[in-house]
Write a structure and sequence with these properties.
mainly beta, 4-stranded antiparallel beta sheet, globular, 10 strands, 6-stranded mixed beta sheet, about 110 residues, single chain
Length: about 110
Amino acid sequence: VQLQASGGGLVQPGGSLRLSCAASGSIFRIVAWAWYRQAPGKQRELVASITSSGSTNYADSVKGRFTISRDNANNTVYLQMSSLKLEDTAIYYCNKLNFWSAWGRGTQLTVSS
């Protein structure tokens, strides 16, 4: 599976942005997907996940602000982010929730005034 995250950028605090992740391969619809992020000097952390049936989970730090969704027809996972905070600044990656594929480059989100 190849992964391509996109949609990052520079956003002011309180702003919104939507990330997209295109995944290759025929297994997309049957696996759980997730968004991860890695801030400078910190370990990669799980941000949000979505199962094949559409059940979602979120890290406490983003609950109520981020929404993960999936489009099985287009092999794409989304992360809608709102009420962005400075501490959301990180490189965002998508991958399977379990049995990770090779990590793509990710997409940089910078929240700054």
